[in-house]
TrEMBL record:
Keywords: NAD, Oxidoreductase. This is methylmalonate-semialdehyde dehydrogenase (CoA acylating). Belongs to the aldehyde dehydrogenase family. It comes from the Bacteria. SUPFAM superfamilies: ALDH-like (SSF53720). GO terms for biological process: L-valine catabolic process; thymine catabolic process. Residues 17-480 form the Aldehyde dehydrogenase domain. InterPro entries: Ald_DH/histidinol_DH, Ald_DH_C, Ald_DH_CS_CYS, Ald_DH_N, Aldehyde_DH_dom, MeMal-semiAld_DH. Coiled coil: none annotated. The keyword Disulfide bond does not apply. GO terms for molecular function: methylmalonate-semialdehyde dehydrogenase (acylating, NAD) activity. Gene3D superfamilies: Aldehyde Dehydrogenase, Chain A, domain 1, Aldehyde Dehydrogenase, Chain A, domain 2.
């Protein structure tokens, strides 16, 4: 092993801790296949150490005033602003997405931290004076204890920000397991949070694979687990955590549709659809992976294909690139195998992104924009989340037909419609059975002070990240019923308050 390749450490108790694990994995630049770091698959002892530190820190942190916690987040958001370019470079080096896209990711994470700066007005209880005969009733919104987060590779900064800023602002302590594919930006993000003033042990990072994830789900001192990633892993995480009696939320896979009505602004609709389908090489759980062209808008499909053909594919450090490589050779192989499956099943391959070579980056995991026409609900390319720059095109005669088709899909992460007809938009938002709806917005992820509300097969658990639901997820409500009386009273054996 070259001494020039950095070995990532855990972050435990406010310190970088070298792992004793014998199992390490290469972190690879997806554009070059260069090994840029080595990440440990942590041991159970290291996980236990992190949880123990978090538990010890909780005793003090939970009693730290809201104002003090808020001031940490205020400092943290400034450090995020100051280090946006550095974080973006880390993301691009290990994930592959373009630098502008990586900077945008940091910006969406920053939005959540800014929301956490309002914790003093978010973590509020209710109070009813003299609710019944001199009895006051009020609620206390209190932290849970040690909490945990498990994140996917596709947003190594934004996804952790969907978890720990609100959790620790509510008075919890936290153990985070980032993706082993691109962990450097996540570790640096946590170090910035400590620099902002989080006390040692409040935020910990333990690297690893399934053993660490399962350990967090089953550890008796962990009270809640948040997961964002694939449906297969998320279902297992939710089962393990729930069986262990923990609160759990799992944001999982998707098949997001974008409906194009013939009255839509053609330029706006096509350009936004291209960006939503192929940005980040399609490696977004909110990517628009299915386009439904309704009525005469079907005539726009050839124009869409030609516009997609002109997108520039290159290494993410090229700021003029529209999309970079997939995260790994395995991801490229899977995407290309699904493209082949689509051909075999009879879909019309209108644009084929396979066999793409980028000069100077011949070893990169590149797949260009790919468009399938004539896709049906029974095809594998429609049923599976491809997680690559592949768009399935479906045609419908009417909006009602499009809505019925989308509602037949088991996933419910996001959906969009492009139209200039307010009545059509209202019909769509009321009748579509998907948790997040965009109207002339292709990727309907709301601002951070609204909750992420994916639904059906895309989500397990009642509460999602961000907004009011995040505060509810990371806290427990305690109701106090109190009477202060100067004089005693007689025996009352009824349940009625007087």
């Amino acid at each position: 092993m070259s001494k020039d390749i950095p070995r990532l450490a855990h972050l435990i108790g406010g310190k970088l801790v070298e792992s004793t694990s014998k199992e390490w994995r290469d972190v690879v630049n997806p554009a070059t296949q260069e090994v840029v770091a080595r990440v440990p698959f942590g041991t159970r002892e290291e996980l236990d150490q992190a949880v123990a530190n978090a538990r010890e820190a909780y005793a003090t942190w939970r009693n730290t005033g809201q104002g003090a916690r808020m001031r940490v987040m205020l400092k943290f958001q400034q450090l995020l602003r100051d280090n946006t370019d550095k974080l973006a470079e880390m993301i691009t080096r290990e994930h592959g997405k373009t630098l502008p896209d990586a900077q945008g990711e940091v910006g969406r994470g920053l939005e959540v931290v800014e929301h956490a700066c309002s914790i003093a007005s978010l973590q509020l209880g209710e109070y009813a004076e003299n609710a019944a005969g001199g009895i006051d009733v009020y609620t206390l919104v209190q932290p849970l204890g040690v909490c945990a987060g498990i994140t996917a590779f596709n947003f190594p900064v934004m996804l952790p920000c969907f978890m720990f800023p609100i959790a620790v602002s509510c008075g919890n302590t936290f153990v985070l397991k980032p993706s082993e594919q691109d962990p450097t930006a996540t570790l640096f993000l946590a170090q910035l949070a400590l620099e902002a003033g989080l006390p040692p042990g409040v935020l910990n990072v333990v690297h690893g694979g399934p053993d660490i994830a399962n350990g967090l789900c089953e550890h008796p001192d962990v009270k809640a687990v948040s997961f964002i990633g694939s449906t297969r892993v998320g279902t297992e995480i939710y089962r393990r955590a729930s069986d262990a009696g923990k609160r759990c939320q799992a944001m999982m896979g998707a098949k997001n549709h974008c409906v194009i009505l013939p009255d839509a602004d053609r330029e706006v609709a096509l350009n936004h659809l291209i960006g939503a389908a192929f940005g980040a090489a399609g490696q977004r759980c909110m990517a628009a992976s299915v386009a439904v062209f309704v009525g005469k808008s079907r005539e726009w499909l050839p124009d869409f294909v030609e516009r997609s053909r002109k997108l520039k594919v290159n290494t993410g450090t090229d700021r003029s690139a529209d999309l970079g490589p997939l995260v790994s050779p395995a991801a490229k192989q899977r995407v290309e195998s699904l493209i082949a499956a689509g051909e075999k099943e009879g879909a019309t391959l209108l644009l084929d992104g396979r066999g793409l070579t980028v000069k100077g980056y011949e070893q990169g995991n590149f797949v260009g924009p790919t468009v399938f026409g004539g896709v049906t609900a029974k095809m594998r390319i429609y049923q599976e989340e491809i997680f690559g720059p592949v768009l399935c095109v479906v045609e419908a005669e009417t909006l009602e037909e499009a809505v019925a088709f989308i509602n037949g899909n088991p996933n419910g992460n996001g959906v969009a419609i492009f139209t200039q007809d307010g009545g059509a938009a209202r019909y769509f938002q009321n009748n579509i059975d998907v948790g997040q709806v965009g109207i002339n917005i292709p990727i309907p992820v709301p601002v951070a002070w609204f909750s992420f509300t994916g639904s059906r097969g895309s989500k397990l658990g009642d509460l999602g990240p961000n907004g009011k639901q995040a505060v509810q997820f990371w806290t427990q409500t305690k109701t106090v019923t109190a009477r202060w009386s100067a004089h005693g009273s007689g025996v009352n054996t009824t349940i009625t308050m007087k």
